[in-house]
Amino acid sequence: MASGGANGEFSFSSSTTAAANRAGAGRNGLPKIQTQDSAKKQSDAAARGAAAGAEDLCYDDSATPVKAQTLDELHSLQKKRSTPSTPITAPAAAGNQGAFFTAMSEEERQRQQLQSISASLASLTRETGPKVVKGDPARRSSAPKVGHVEHYAPSISVTDSSLKFTHVLYNLSPAELYEQAIKYEKGSFITSTGALATLSGAKTGRSPRDKRVVRDDTTEDDLWWGKGSPNIEMDEHTFMVNRERAVDYLNSLDKVFVNDQFLNWDPEHRIKVRIVSARAYHSLFMHNMCIRATPEELENFGTPDFTIYNAGQFPCNRYTHYMTSSTSIDLNLGRREMVILGTQYAGEMKKGLFGVMHYLMPLRGILSLHSGCNMGKDGDVALFFGLSGTGKTTLSTDHNRYLIGDDEHCWSDNGVSNIEGGCYAKCIDLSAEKEPDIFNAIKFGTVLENVVFDEHTRQVDYSDKSVTENTRAAYPIEYIPNAKLPCVGPHPKNVILLACDAFGVLPPVSRLNLAQTMYHFISGYTALVAGTEDGIKEPQATFSACFGAAFIMMHPTRYAAMLAEKMQKHGATGWLVNTGWSGGSYGSGSRIKLSYTRKIINAIHSGELLEANYTKTEIFGLEIPSSIEGVPSEILQPANTWSDKKAYNETLLKLGGLFKKNFEVFANHKIGKDGKLTEQILAAGPVF
Looking at the predicted structure, is the pLDDT value of residue 337 above 70? Predict the structure, then answer.
């Protein structure tokens, strides 16, 4: 038999004699592999008379046995428990305020947390919350030992729902939510880049006609009601009917997802929110879109300031008063609650909370804004307002500047702050060339809504509209390389209002005074080109108050007045930038080049346009700079780019008339002392 050399590590025992066969054989007569070390150990063992059993061992690669008696116990050893990095504390006892905080046991902290969640899920009819316990019910082999704590004496007899446990999956990580979605939610897949692709069901967009706001003593005077308002009223009783329906549905499930998170990066004005949902998709979406709490912040999270009950898989009762379909999104600002029934579209939660901030923040003297926001390396902040198609996302995402946020912000005495912890980007026709930051952000942890992908490679086809054109990606803001964390900045220097004017009569850029800024902010203008399927090719004007009429709660003039006050106080300049057509309307003119628009924006950032010479236009009275470096001077004056001057004047008058007609709904709303501010705003509009 072969053997290793003097320094070899192993050898086969010789088999030339029967005695040698007996001594050197392993199990079943096979030659035994002997290392030098093991041979020495066997020799030593033989000398101690302990070699008897060892001869039958072919090769010993055994290790210390695992500390488990079953496979379930073995799997439990695979994951270690997360623990906060700071001590857990409880408030000092009353009357002993100077004493140090006393340590709170982990069991007590868990009990208080579950008590808070049980209170959130309490039925107001039964006056008691459900029995709740943390963890996935699929992983529990026996009845849980942790029960609920009753907050009130039950007023009715025991029901079936009160006998069951509701398992709470609390603030799960993206990896855990992936597992839940893939295992339990049909239509959930991991794409080739690691994102979670999901379906939002029958609804692939918001349902503004099904959104209701409770009209009561709290909101009667503060909110905008009536013509032009996005706030459709409902009464308190109807809200409670829908709330009970949502809570009953959630309590009937074996498990619910609970997210405790924050809104507003300004720690002085942040809001605690709790989202209770039935889908891992919804929990991961809100994990990305809200500000994620640290383990230390969760220790003392306490009672939330606002709660969402997302029972979107369950319809509302269409026979309930105020209901017009099986979908209902209900907001009760007095109770600080939101109920979702009949739609699984996750954007309802994001925009619902934005509406809440549009109510709560102005009450504190803080301006809430539907805008993008970035900051230069010297600390100069710019706000970007614009409707869909105006280039707000493209222009606010600048590799030479820090991104504070892409959609929702607050402007307080401390400066600007992002409301959200993530971005919700459109994905239709997305490419690495057009939007590299968004494209590269679609990776593990990102939620992809309603996209189409290859069934084998899982590569997403962003041009495919088979499910919907409104495909979306939700990802944490830190996925953007130049995001500023924390997402706060100083007071803005520039307020940029973007309009895609398909009529081709607004200048590429114009400087606005305060009254003009308020007028165009309230108007929220852009122009869309109608689809060719019905043969209409003429531009259609679109107005959305404050560039986000669907989300504002108070009258637009209130937000406009706050904007003007802050701009005046902090020396900000207003600008109107047209990213639309030049040299004619859509069909005859051409779209202003993006490279020219970027040079205009850069000139605003640098302060170059503050030193420029200006001339005033007719009708709209806009101030136009005479020159901008890198931009052809002839396109700065729209009239110079039209070959048919008569057509230009007619189109200009037409657009001015559309502005006038749109503003009629705001003209009678008096703001300022004796309504003088209203008069100034009206005077800043088109003059014929």
Answer: yes
